[in-house]
Design goal:
By secondary structure, the chain is an alpha+beta fold. It is about 15% helix and about 40% strand.
Length: about 450
């Protein structure tokens, strides 16, 4: 309910102003605030006020209720038998914590089967991709001479390559510690190995990735020669087709795995939907779910409120809404503790749309306590005084002293032993009923409140 905060009027003085006898008919008694003033010696009693700047305050008083910053009624998204309730009323819970579950026996079995299928598909597809890649790297490999004037025929390669892409460089040398007809290899590039003795009756291993090298001519004809092996061989006639087969194997693997993974994720989602999880950290306020009972969709199972940041909810009449602003300070008293225990707060939001309550248009305002206090509980009734305007050193006078005529506003100002009407410009009206004087009066001037007749 709207209210005002009354403050006592200051700077109230009583003076005697001499007035011409034409205005004085006889002895007049003026009684103001319990003080009686009599005219003496041809004067009449006049009540005046010295204008002084001071604080100007506008306030809106409303009622409200303490509420949690967040509250929610949680319900299962799937119907089922309640398998567990893992909390009790009053428990504090954290974000994501499981509060209750419904039975998932069948889904658990389905998930295990889907995961087994995924592992099998992964293995099969990886084998196909590895086979296609191995063919790409191994097919039609060529041993290329470093220079073109070698008389010996190029060595030949056999085996299936199972290493990384790159280039082998082979240097053939006569063995320093070997017989006259024995030779060794110095291998660099993909692997650095050597010296490696050249075998006479079988191919010599070229590194450790599955390739073997043979020399069709006399080993002496290879003395001091250097050869390169590019893996894969992009100049081979089969390179393009092998590359296409490999890329298709990759695409097929991705497609098949995506289908199997989607099936697993779908079952995992179904399982997750059969668990109630806390959407935020808070306190359990009610539990309707019971172990063994049937959970129905969209039927509240557990209620939760946020643990901290209690707020005040108030529905402000539309006439006061223009005065409110976000961040406006407020003083709160709670019925539980009385007016002697104030709490500070501020406005944090004002709904843009109306809420009709008892046929009256109101606007929902939320205020945040400045300090969280353990004494404050959700549901407590709050009495709210919101300061909508507070300024210092403002000249204001009682609103009733303003006189209007011809569309202008006037105040009676003491001038010498008499009084004159002074035009003034006014602003807002304070909660105490005083009106702001924008121009027309200065500090120290005396205005007439009432005068004797």
């Amino acid at each position: 309910m709207l209210g005002c905060q009354d403050t006592p009027m200051k700077f109230l003085t009583f003076q005697v102003i001499k007035k011409p006898l034409i205005y004085v008919v006889g002895a007049v008694i003026v009684v103001v605030g319990g003080i009686s003033l009599l005219n003496r010696g041809g004067t009449s009693a006049v009540e005046t006020m010295v204008v002084q700047p001071g604080p100007f305050v506008r306030e809106v008083s409303v009622s409200g209720k303490v509420v949690a910053a967040q509250d929610v009624d949680l319900a299962f998204s799937e119907t089922g038998r309640v398998a567990s309730v893992r909390v009790k009323v009053g428990d504090r819970v954290s974000t994501g914590q499981v509060l209750a579950t419904v039975a998932i026996d069948t889904l658990t079995a389905d998930l295990r089967a889907a995961q087994d299928d995924l592992a099998e598909v992964q293995k099969e597809q990886d084998t196909l991709v590895q086979s296609a890649y191995r063919t790409l790297l191994s097919d039609e490999l060529a041993v290329v001479p470093e220079v073109s004037d070698y008389t010996a025929r190029p060595p030949t390669l056999t085996g299936l390559y199972n290493g990384p892409e790159g280039t082998y460089t082979i240097r053939v040398e006569h063995g320093v510690h070997l017989s006259d007809d024995d030779h060794e290899l110095q291998i660099s590039g993909i692997e650095k190995r050597g010296p490696v003795e050249v075998l006479r009756d079988e191919p010599t291993p070229l590194g450790t990735h599955g390739l073997f090298v043979s020399f069709p001519d006399s080993l002496n004809s290879y003395d001091g020669t250097t050869w390169d092996v590019a893996i894969p061989n992009p100049k081979s006639s089969s390179y393009r087709s092998n590359y296409s087969v490999y890329q298709e194997a990759l695409r097929m693997r991705d497609k098949v795995l995506a289908t199997a993974q989607a099936k697993v994720r779908g079952i995992q989602t179904d399982i997750a939907e059969r668990s109630l999880r806390a959407p935020f950290s808070g306190i359990v306020t009610a539990i309707d779910a019971k172990v063994g009972g049937i959970a129905l969709t969209n039927e509240s199972a557990i209620s939760l409120i946020s643990a901290g940041n209690l707020q005040i909810e108030s529905f402000v009449p539309e006439v006061n809404v223009p005065l409110l602003a976000v961040h406006a300070p407020a003083t709160i008293t709670l019925d539980a503790y009385g007016p002697a225990v104030p709490f500070m707060a501020s406005v944090i939001s004002i709904d843009p749309a109306e809420t009709v309550r008892d046929g009256v248009s109101t606007y929902r305002a939320i205020l945040q306590f400045s300090i969280q206090d353990a004494r404050i509980k959700p549901g407590m009734t709050a009495n709210i005084v919101i300061t909508t305007d507070r300024r210092e050193n403002i000249i204001s006078i009682p609103q009733g002293l303003i006189r209007e005529h011809d569309g202008k506003k006037f105040v009676e100002v003491q001038q010498g032993e008499g009084a004159v009407e002074r035009e003034v410009a006014t602003g807002n009206v304070s909660s105490a009923g005083s009106i702001e004087i924008i121009s027309g009066l200065t500090a120290g001037e005396t205005i007439i409140l009432t005068k004797g007749s």
